[in-house]
Amino acid sequence: METYDALLASITPATGQNSRTILDPATGEAVGQAPVHTVEDLEAAIAAAATAQPEWAALGHDARSAALMKAADAVERSAEELAQLLSREQGKPLNGPNARFEVGACAAWLRATAATPLDPETVVDDGETRAELHYRPIGVVGAIGPWNWPMMITVWQIAPALRMGNAVVVKPSEYTPLSVLALAAIINEELPDGLLTVVSGGRDVGEALASHDAIGKVMFTGSTATGKAIIRSSADTVKRLTLELGGNDAGIVLPDSDPKAIAEGLFWGAFINTGQTCAALKRLYVHESQYDAVCTELTAVAAAMPMGNGLDENNVLGPLQNRQQYDIVARLVEAAKASGARVLIGGNPDADQPGNFYPTTLVADIDNDNPLVAEEQFGPALPIIKYSTVDEAVAKANALDVGLGASVWSSDLGAAREVASRIQAGTVWINKHGAVDPRVPFGGAKQSGYGLEFGAEGLKALGVPQVING
Protein backbone atom coordinates (compact mmCIF):
# COMPACT_ATOMS: atom_id res chain seq x y z
CA MET A 1 0.00 0.00 0.00
CA GLU A 2 1.39 3.39 -0.93
CA THR A 3 -0.65 5.65 1.35
CA TYR A 4 -2.84 5.62 4.43
CA ASP A 5 -5.86 6.52 2.27
CA ALA A 6 -5.15 3.59 -0.04
CA LEU A 7 -4.94 1.24 2.91
CA LEU A 8 -8.25 2.46 4.31
CA ALA A 9 -9.89 2.29 0.88
CA SER A 10 -8.82 -1.34 0.50
CA ILE A 11 -11.02 -2.37 3.44
CA THR A 12 -13.93 0.04 2.96
CA PRO A 13 -17.23 -1.84 2.46
CA ALA A 14 -18.70 -1.91 -1.02
CA THR A 15 -21.67 0.30 -1.80
CA GLY A 16 -24.81 -1.28 -0.40
CA GLN A 17 -22.99 -3.52 2.08
CA ASN A 18 -23.99 -3.19 5.71
CA SER A 19 -21.45 -1.10 7.60
CA ARG A 20 -20.92 0.95 10.72
CA THR A 21 -18.78 3.93 11.61
CA ILE A 22 -15.69 3.39 13.78
CA LEU A 23 -14.82 6.36 15.99
CA ASP A 24 -11.43 7.57 17.24
CA PRO A 25 -11.41 7.14 21.04
CA ALA A 26 -9.21 10.23 21.39
CA THR A 27 -11.45 12.63 19.49
CA GLY A 28 -14.78 10.98 18.74
CA GLU A 29 -14.20 11.62 15.03
CA ALA A 30 -14.91 8.99 12.38
CA VAL A 31 -11.97 6.77 11.43
CA GLY A 32 -13.71 4.78 8.72
CA GLN A 33 -16.47 2.36 7.85
CA ALA A 34 -16.27 -1.27 8.93
CA PRO A 35 -18.29 -4.00 7.22
CA VAL A 36 -20.93 -5.72 9.34
CA HIS A 37 -20.65 -9.33 8.27
CA THR A 38 -23.35 -11.89 8.96
CA VAL A 39 -23.47 -15.56 9.89
CA GLU A 40 -24.03 -16.23 6.17
CA ASP A 41 -20.74 -14.42 5.45
CA LEU A 42 -19.09 -16.60 8.08
CA GLU A 43 -20.40 -19.74 6.38
CA ALA A 44 -18.92 -18.58 3.08
CA ALA A 45 -15.56 -17.84 4.72
CA ILE A 46 -15.42 -21.25 6.38
CA ALA A 47 -16.30 -22.99 3.12
CA ALA A 48 -13.55 -21.10 1.27
CA ALA A 49 -11.07 -21.92 4.03
CA ALA A 50 -11.92 -25.61 3.93
CA THR A 51 -11.38 -25.59 0.15
CA ALA A 52 -8.02 -23.77 0.32
CA GLN A 53 -6.56 -25.65 3.29
CA PRO A 54 -5.55 -29.05 1.82
CA GLU A 55 -3.36 -27.56 -0.88
CA TRP A 56 -1.75 -25.22 1.64
CA ALA A 57 -1.06 -28.13 3.99
CA ALA A 58 0.49 -30.12 1.14
CA LEU A 59 3.14 -27.41 0.57
CA GLY A 60 5.05 -28.44 3.68
CA HIS A 61 6.73 -26.43 6.41
CA ASP A 62 9.45 -24.85 4.28
CA ALA A 63 7.11 -23.37 1.68
CA ARG A 64 4.63 -22.19 4.29
CA SER A 65 7.41 -20.57 6.30
CA ALA A 66 8.68 -18.83 3.19
CA ALA A 67 5.21 -17.35 2.64
CA LEU A 68 5.12 -16.09 6.23
CA MET A 69 8.51 -14.45 5.73
CA LYS A 70 7.15 -12.64 2.67
CA ALA A 71 4.09 -11.62 4.67
CA ALA A 72 6.40 -10.08 7.27
CA ASP A 73 8.10 -8.10 4.51
CA ALA A 74 4.70 -6.88 3.29
CA VAL A 75 3.74 -5.75 6.80
CA GLU A 76 6.97 -3.80 7.09
CA ARG A 77 6.39 -2.09 3.73
CA SER A 78 3.07 -0.74 5.06
CA ALA A 79 4.20 -0.36 8.68
CA GLU A 80 3.61 3.38 9.00
CA GLU A 81 0.17 3.25 7.39
CA LEU A 82 -0.83 0.36 9.67
CA ALA A 83 0.44 2.22 12.74
CA GLN A 84 -1.52 5.34 11.78
CA LEU A 85 -4.73 3.33 11.41
CA LEU A 86 -4.11 1.48 14.66
CA SER A 87 -3.51 4.72 16.54
CA ARG A 88 -6.70 6.27 15.20
CA GLU A 89 -8.89 3.24 15.87
CA GLN A 90 -7.45 1.82 19.10
CA GLY A 91 -6.17 5.10 20.54
CA LYS A 92 -2.63 4.07 21.40
CA PRO A 93 0.11 6.59 20.57
CA LEU A 94 2.43 6.08 17.65
CA ASN A 95 5.48 6.19 19.91
CA GLY A 96 6.54 4.34 23.03
CA PRO A 97 5.53 0.66 23.36
CA ASN A 98 2.42 1.35 21.33
CA ALA A 99 1.30 1.50 17.67
CA ARG A 100 4.62 1.39 15.81
CA PHE A 101 5.85 -1.12 18.37
CA GLU A 102 2.78 -3.31 17.76
CA VAL A 103 3.15 -3.32 13.99
CA GLY A 104 6.83 -4.13 14.36
CA ALA A 105 5.90 -7.02 16.65
CA CYS A 106 3.58 -8.38 13.94
CA ALA A 107 6.48 -8.68 11.51
CA ALA A 108 8.77 -10.08 14.20
CA TRP A 109 6.24 -12.75 15.22
CA LEU A 110 5.63 -13.79 11.63
CA ARG A 111 9.36 -14.28 11.13
CA ALA A 112 9.94 -16.04 14.45
CA THR A 113 7.03 -18.38 13.83
CA ALA A 114 8.35 -19.20 10.38
CA ALA A 115 11.84 -19.86 11.72
CA THR A 116 10.94 -22.05 14.71
CA PRO A 117 12.01 -25.65 14.02
CA LEU A 118 9.52 -28.45 14.59
CA ASP A 119 10.92 -31.81 13.52
CA PRO A 120 9.36 -35.21 14.17
CA GLU A 121 10.35 -36.44 17.62
CA THR A 122 11.65 -39.96 18.12
CA VAL A 123 10.21 -40.97 21.48
CA VAL A 124 11.36 -44.60 21.51
CA ASP A 125 13.99 -46.36 19.40
CA ASP A 126 15.28 -49.40 21.28
CA GLY A 127 15.87 -51.80 18.42
CA GLU A 128 12.46 -53.40 18.76
CA THR A 129 10.13 -50.40 18.79
CA ARG A 130 10.46 -47.13 16.97
CA ALA A 131 7.85 -44.47 17.75
CA GLU A 132 7.83 -41.02 16.20
CA LEU A 133 5.64 -38.09 17.20
CA HIS A 134 4.42 -35.88 14.34
CA TYR A 135 2.01 -32.92 14.21
CA ARG A 136 -0.53 -32.80 11.39
CA PRO A 137 -2.76 -29.85 10.40
CA ILE A 138 -6.05 -29.45 12.23
CA GLY A 139 -7.94 -28.03 9.25
CA VAL A 140 -9.77 -24.75 9.77
CA VAL A 141 -8.96 -22.67 12.87
CA GLY A 142 -11.19 -19.96 14.30
CA ALA A 143 -9.41 -16.96 15.83
CA ILE A 144 -11.33 -14.53 18.05
CA GLY A 145 -9.34 -11.48 19.07
CA PRO A 146 -9.51 -8.51 21.48
CA TRP A 147 -9.44 -4.73 21.07
CA ASN A 148 -6.37 -3.92 23.13
CA TRP A 149 -3.62 -5.31 20.84
CA PRO A 150 -5.76 -6.14 17.80
CA MET A 151 -3.02 -6.55 15.22
CA MET A 152 -0.38 -8.23 17.36
CA ILE A 153 -2.68 -10.76 19.01
CA THR A 154 -4.21 -11.61 15.63
CA VAL A 155 -0.72 -12.46 14.40
CA TRP A 156 -0.12 -14.53 17.54
CA GLN A 157 -3.15 -16.57 16.47
CA ILE A 158 -2.85 -16.76 12.71
CA ALA A 159 0.93 -17.15 12.25
CA PRO A 160 1.29 -20.53 14.00
CA ALA A 161 -2.03 -21.74 12.57
CA LEU A 162 -0.84 -21.01 9.03
CA ARG A 163 2.65 -22.35 9.64
CA MET A 164 1.14 -25.67 10.74
CA GLY A 165 -0.89 -26.01 7.54
CA ASN A 166 -4.25 -24.72 8.69
CA ALA A 167 -6.62 -22.17 7.20
CA VAL A 168 -7.92 -19.41 9.51
CA VAL A 169 -11.14 -17.48 9.90
CA VAL A 170 -10.69 -14.42 12.14
CA LYS A 171 -13.41 -12.67 14.10
CA PRO A 172 -12.01 -9.32 15.38
CA SER A 173 -13.38 -7.23 18.20
CA GLU A 174 -16.26 -4.99 17.18
CA TYR A 175 -14.27 -2.07 18.63
CA THR A 176 -11.19 -2.51 16.41
CA PRO A 177 -12.14 -4.30 13.15
CA LEU A 178 -10.38 -1.90 10.78
CA SER A 179 -6.90 -2.69 12.10
CA VAL A 180 -7.40 -6.42 11.70
CA LEU A 181 -9.00 -6.10 8.27
CA ALA A 182 -6.07 -3.97 7.06
CA LEU A 183 -3.45 -6.30 8.50
CA ALA A 184 -5.09 -9.33 6.90
CA ALA A 185 -5.37 -7.55 3.55
CA ILE A 186 -1.62 -7.01 3.56
CA ILE A 187 -0.75 -10.53 4.72
CA ASN A 188 -3.10 -11.94 2.07
CA GLU A 189 -0.89 -10.44 -0.62
CA GLU A 190 1.38 -13.44 0.05
CA LEU A 191 -1.24 -16.16 0.68
CA PRO A 192 -3.58 -18.23 -1.50
CA ASP A 193 -7.16 -17.01 -1.83
CA GLY A 194 -9.55 -18.15 0.87
CA LEU A 195 -6.88 -19.28 3.31
CA LEU A 196 -7.20 -16.30 5.68
CA THR A 197 -10.48 -14.40 6.02
CA VAL A 198 -11.63 -11.76 8.49
CA VAL A 199 -15.34 -11.82 9.32
CA SER A 200 -16.17 -8.52 10.97
CA GLY A 201 -19.48 -9.24 12.65
CA GLY A 202 -21.21 -9.08 15.99
CA ARG A 203 -21.62 -11.49 18.86
CA ASP A 204 -23.79 -13.80 16.75
CA VAL A 205 -20.87 -14.33 14.37
CA GLY A 206 -18.50 -15.11 17.25
CA GLU A 207 -20.93 -17.60 18.74
CA ALA A 208 -21.46 -19.30 15.38
CA LEU A 209 -17.70 -19.52 14.82
CA ALA A 210 -17.09 -21.08 18.24
CA SER A 211 -19.73 -23.76 17.74
CA HIS A 212 -19.30 -24.49 14.00
CA ASP A 213 -18.68 -28.14 13.23
CA ALA A 214 -16.14 -27.32 10.50
CA ILE A 215 -13.89 -25.41 12.91
CA GLY A 216 -11.35 -27.77 14.45
CA LYS A 217 -9.85 -25.33 16.94
CA VAL A 218 -10.69 -21.99 18.48
CA MET A 219 -8.05 -19.54 19.70
CA PHE A 220 -9.47 -16.82 21.92
CA THR A 221 -8.01 -13.88 23.80
CA GLY A 222 -10.42 -11.94 25.99
CA SER A 223 -12.47 -12.09 29.16
CA THR A 224 -12.82 -15.14 31.37
CA ALA A 225 -16.61 -14.95 31.08
CA THR A 226 -16.49 -15.14 27.29
CA GLY A 227 -13.87 -17.88 27.48
CA LYS A 228 -16.24 -19.98 29.59
CA ALA A 229 -19.00 -19.46 27.01
CA ILE A 230 -16.63 -20.65 24.26
CA ILE A 231 -15.77 -23.75 26.28
CA ARG A 232 -19.46 -24.58 26.57
CA SER A 233 -20.23 -23.93 22.91
CA SER A 234 -17.25 -26.01 21.75
CA ALA A 235 -18.23 -29.09 23.70
CA ASP A 236 -20.55 -30.74 21.17
CA THR A 237 -17.86 -30.77 18.49
CA VAL A 238 -14.95 -31.49 20.89
CA LYS A 239 -12.94 -28.56 19.58
CA ARG A 240 -9.39 -27.94 20.62
CA LEU A 241 -9.02 -24.64 22.46
CA THR A 242 -6.32 -22.16 23.36
CA LEU A 243 -7.69 -19.57 25.77
CA GLU A 244 -5.80 -16.51 27.02
CA LEU A 245 -8.26 -15.01 29.48
CA GLY A 246 -8.41 -12.27 32.08
CA GLY A 247 -5.55 -11.56 34.42
CA ASN A 248 -4.95 -9.42 37.47
CA ASP A 249 -1.18 -9.67 37.61
CA ALA A 250 0.65 -9.14 40.87
CA GLY A 251 4.12 -7.66 41.28
CA ILE A 252 6.16 -8.13 44.45
CA VAL A 253 8.95 -5.71 45.36
CA LEU A 254 11.36 -7.41 47.76
CA PRO A 255 13.10 -5.53 50.60
CA ASP A 256 16.49 -5.42 48.87
CA SER A 257 15.24 -3.63 45.73
CA ASP A 258 16.48 -0.23 44.55
CA PRO A 259 13.31 1.90 44.18
CA LYS A 260 14.85 4.42 41.82
CA ALA A 261 16.36 1.74 39.59
CA ILE A 262 13.12 -0.21 39.19
CA ALA A 263 10.63 2.66 38.98
CA GLU A 264 10.52 2.98 35.20
CA GLY A 265 10.28 -0.78 34.74
CA LEU A 266 7.40 -0.87 37.21
CA PHE A 267 5.69 1.97 35.39
CA TRP A 268 5.78 0.35 31.96
CA GLY A 269 4.92 -3.04 33.43
CA ALA A 270 1.67 -1.45 34.63
CA PHE A 271 0.96 1.25 32.07
CA ILE A 272 2.00 -0.24 28.73
CA ASN A 273 -0.85 0.47 26.29
CA THR A 274 -2.27 2.76 29.00
CA GLY A 275 -2.85 -0.29 31.21
CA GLN A 276 -4.97 -2.08 28.61
CA THR A 277 -2.97 -5.30 28.53
CA CYS A 278 -3.96 -8.72 29.85
CA ALA A 279 -0.52 -9.40 31.29
CA ALA A 280 0.09 -5.90 32.66
CA LEU A 281 1.06 -5.31 36.30
CA LYS A 282 -2.26 -4.56 37.99
CA ARG A 283 -1.53 -4.76 41.73
CA LEU A 284 1.83 -3.94 43.28
CA TYR A 285 2.95 -5.31 46.64
CA VAL A 286 5.85 -3.39 48.21
CA HIS A 287 7.71 -4.23 51.42
CA GLU A 288 7.13 -1.72 54.19
CA SER A 289 10.83 -0.77 54.23
CA GLN A 290 10.67 0.33 50.59
CA TYR A 291 7.07 1.47 50.38
CA ASP A 292 7.44 5.24 50.64
CA ALA A 293 10.46 5.32 48.34
CA VAL A 294 8.74 3.22 45.67
CA CYS A 295 5.66 5.44 45.85
CA THR A 296 7.81 8.56 45.45
CA GLU A 297 9.90 7.24 42.55
CA LEU A 298 6.94 5.74 40.71
CA THR A 299 4.98 8.98 41.03
CA ALA A 300 7.91 10.91 39.55
CA VAL A 301 8.04 8.61 36.54
CA ALA A 302 4.26 8.79 36.05
CA ALA A 303 4.26 12.58 36.16
CA ALA A 304 6.78 12.71 33.31
CA MET A 305 4.81 10.53 30.88
CA PRO A 306 2.68 12.63 28.48
CA MET A 307 -0.86 11.47 27.67
CA GLY A 308 -2.92 12.67 24.73
CA ASN A 309 -3.91 12.08 21.13
CA GLY A 310 -1.92 9.16 19.77
CA LEU A 311 -1.03 10.96 16.54
CA ASP A 312 0.94 13.54 18.52
CA GLU A 313 4.52 12.27 18.36
CA ASN A 314 5.19 13.50 21.91
CA ASN A 315 2.61 11.30 23.65
CA VAL A 316 3.29 7.83 25.05
CA LEU A 317 -0.07 7.27 26.79
CA GLY A 318 -3.46 7.49 25.11
CA PRO A 319 -7.18 7.18 25.82
CA LEU A 320 -9.02 4.09 26.90
CA GLN A 321 -10.29 2.41 23.77
CA ASN A 322 -13.98 2.53 24.67
CA ARG A 323 -16.27 4.27 27.11
CA GLN A 324 -17.32 1.04 28.78
CA GLN A 325 -13.74 0.43 29.88
CA TYR A 326 -13.37 4.07 30.95
CA ASP A 327 -16.40 3.65 33.21
CA ILE A 328 -14.91 0.52 34.81
CA VAL A 329 -11.66 2.31 35.65
CA ALA A 330 -13.51 5.37 36.97
CA ARG A 331 -15.75 3.21 39.17
CA LEU A 332 -12.84 1.33 40.68
CA VAL A 333 -10.81 4.48 41.40
CA GLU A 334 -13.83 6.13 43.00
CA ALA A 335 -14.32 3.06 45.20
CA ALA A 336 -10.69 3.33 46.30
CA LYS A 337 -11.05 7.04 47.08
CA ALA A 338 -14.25 6.43 49.03
CA SER A 339 -12.46 3.84 51.16
CA GLY A 340 -9.87 6.39 52.27
CA ALA A 341 -7.02 5.23 50.02
CA ARG A 342 -4.44 7.88 49.13
CA VAL A 343 -4.24 9.05 45.51
CA LEU A 344 -0.61 9.85 44.68
CA ILE A 345 -1.33 11.17 41.19
CA GLY A 346 -4.36 11.25 38.89
CA GLY A 347 -7.83 10.10 39.83
CA ASN A 348 -9.32 13.38 38.58
CA PRO A 349 -10.54 13.02 34.98
CA ASP A 350 -11.47 16.17 33.09
CA ALA A 351 -15.15 15.83 32.24
CA ASP A 352 -14.85 18.50 29.54
CA GLN A 353 -12.00 16.80 27.68
CA PRO A 354 -13.05 15.01 24.49
CA GLY A 355 -12.23 11.35 24.17
CA ASN A 356 -11.88 8.51 26.68
CA PHE A 357 -8.92 9.92 28.59
CA TYR A 358 -8.48 8.79 32.17
CA PRO A 359 -5.37 10.25 33.85
CA THR A 360 -2.47 8.12 34.97
CA THR A 361 -3.42 7.17 38.53
CA LEU A 362 -1.44 5.69 41.43
CA VAL A 363 -3.29 4.74 44.61
CA ALA A 364 -1.48 4.00 47.89
CA ASP A 365 -2.53 2.92 51.38
CA ILE A 366 -5.22 0.65 50.01
CA ASP A 367 -6.64 -2.56 51.47
CA ASN A 368 -6.05 -5.79 49.61
CA ASP A 369 -9.77 -6.52 49.34
CA ASN A 370 -10.59 -3.13 47.81
CA PRO A 371 -12.26 -3.50 44.38
CA LEU A 372 -9.36 -1.69 42.68
CA VAL A 373 -7.11 -4.52 43.88
CA ALA A 374 -9.47 -7.49 43.68
CA GLU A 375 -10.96 -6.69 40.25
CA GLU A 376 -9.06 -6.30 36.99
CA GLN A 377 -9.10 -2.58 36.16
CA PHE A 378 -7.58 -2.89 32.65
CA GLY A 379 -6.64 0.76 32.53
CA PRO A 380 -4.26 3.44 33.84
CA ALA A 381 -4.79 2.98 37.59
CA LEU A 382 -2.37 1.03 39.79
CA PRO A 383 -2.98 0.15 43.47
CA ILE A 384 0.15 -0.09 45.65
CA ILE A 385 -0.23 -2.35 48.71
CA LYS A 386 2.15 -2.46 51.67
CA TYR A 387 3.27 -5.81 53.09
CA SER A 388 5.39 -6.89 56.07
CA THR A 389 6.62 -10.39 55.19
CA VAL A 390 7.33 -12.15 51.92
CA ASP A 391 4.97 -14.96 52.93
CA GLU A 392 2.20 -12.36 53.26
CA ALA A 393 2.95 -10.92 49.83
CA VAL A 394 2.96 -14.34 48.16
CA ALA A 395 -0.32 -15.30 49.85
CA LYS A 396 -1.96 -12.08 48.63
CA ALA A 397 -0.58 -12.50 45.12
CA ASN A 398 -2.02 -16.04 44.97
CA ALA A 399 -5.38 -15.24 46.56
CA LEU A 400 -7.29 -14.51 43.34
CA ASP A 401 -8.71 -17.06 40.90
CA VAL A 402 -6.60 -15.76 37.99
CA GLY A 403 -2.94 -16.29 37.20
CA LEU A 404 -1.77 -15.05 33.83
CA GLY A 405 1.49 -13.33 34.81
CA ALA A 406 3.34 -11.97 37.83
CA SER A 407 6.70 -10.38 38.63
CA VAL A 408 9.30 -10.22 41.39
CA TRP A 409 11.60 -7.22 41.79
CA SER A 410 14.88 -7.70 43.65
CA SER A 411 18.62 -7.06 43.56
CA ASP A 412 19.15 -10.71 44.55
CA LEU A 413 18.41 -12.95 41.58
CA GLY A 414 18.41 -16.11 43.67
CA ALA A 415 15.93 -14.69 46.16
CA ALA A 416 13.72 -13.46 43.33
CA ARG A 417 13.67 -16.88 41.67
CA GLU A 418 12.75 -18.56 44.96
CA VAL A 419 9.79 -16.23 45.42
CA ALA A 420 8.84 -16.59 41.74
CA SER A 421 8.57 -20.37 42.14
CA ARG A 422 5.89 -19.87 44.80
CA ILE A 423 3.60 -17.69 42.67
CA GLN A 424 0.65 -19.28 40.87
CA ALA A 425 0.93 -17.78 37.41
CA GLY A 426 1.71 -18.96 33.90
CA THR A 427 4.72 -16.63 33.63
CA VAL A 428 6.68 -14.93 36.41
CA TRP A 429 9.12 -12.24 35.28
CA ILE A 430 12.05 -10.99 37.34
CA ASN A 431 12.79 -7.26 37.36
CA LYS A 432 10.41 -6.74 34.43
CA HIS A 433 6.76 -7.41 33.69
CA GLY A 434 4.87 -8.44 30.57
CA ALA A 435 7.90 -8.98 28.34
CA VAL A 436 6.73 -11.64 25.89
CA ASP A 437 9.07 -13.32 23.41
CA PRO A 438 8.04 -15.33 20.32
CA ARG A 439 10.52 -18.06 21.32
CA VAL A 440 9.19 -18.48 24.88
CA PRO A 441 5.92 -20.33 25.64
CA PHE A 442 3.18 -18.17 27.15
CA GLY A 443 -0.10 -19.17 28.78
CA GLY A 444 -2.20 -18.75 31.89
CA ALA A 445 -2.93 -20.61 35.11
CA LYS A 446 -6.20 -20.98 37.03
CA GLN A 447 -9.03 -19.03 35.36
CA SER A 448 -6.63 -17.11 33.14
CA GLY A 449 -7.03 -19.86 30.59
CA TYR A 450 -5.14 -22.84 29.24
CA GLY A 451 -2.99 -23.80 26.29
CA LEU A 452 0.36 -22.40 25.27
CA GLU A 453 1.31 -19.91 22.59
CA PHE A 454 4.72 -19.06 21.04
CA GLY A 455 7.75 -21.15 20.24
CA ALA A 456 7.65 -24.85 19.42
CA GLU A 457 4.97 -25.46 22.06
CA GLY A 458 2.75 -22.89 20.37
CA LEU A 459 3.20 -24.62 17.02
CA LYS A 460 2.29 -27.99 18.54
CA ALA A 461 -0.91 -26.46 19.88
CA LEU A 462 -1.99 -25.75 16.29
CA GLY A 463 -1.48 -29.35 15.17
CA VAL A 464 -2.96 -32.77 15.79
CA PRO A 465 -0.39 -35.07 17.40
CA GLN A 466 0.09 -38.35 15.56
CA VAL A 467 2.33 -41.19 16.69
CA ILE A 468 3.75 -43.48 14.03
CA ASN A 469 4.74 -46.68 15.77
CA GLY A 470 6.55 -49.41 13.92
From TrEMBL:
Q: What keyword terms does UniProt attach to this protein?
A: Oxidoreductase
GO function terms (MF aspect) = phenylacetaldehyde dehydrogenase (NAD+) activity
Tell me which EC number(s) this protein carries. 1.2.1.39
Q: Which domain of life is it from?
A: Bacteria
CDD domains recorded for this chain? ALDH_AldA-AAD23400
Q: Report the family membership.
A: Belongs to the aldehyde dehydrogenase family.
InterPro entries in UniProt: Ald_DH/histidinol_DH, Ald_DH_C, Ald_DH_CS_CYS, Ald_DH_CS_GLU, Ald_DH_N, Aldehyde_DH_dom, LUC3-like
What residue ranges are annotated as transmembrane? none
Instruction: List the Pfam families.
Output: Aldedh
Q: What is this protein called?
A: Phenylacetaldehyde dehydrogenase
Active site: which residues?
244
What is the organism field in this record? Paenarthrobacter aurescens (strain TC1)
Q: Where do the Aldehyde dehydrogenase domain residues begin and end?
A: 18-461
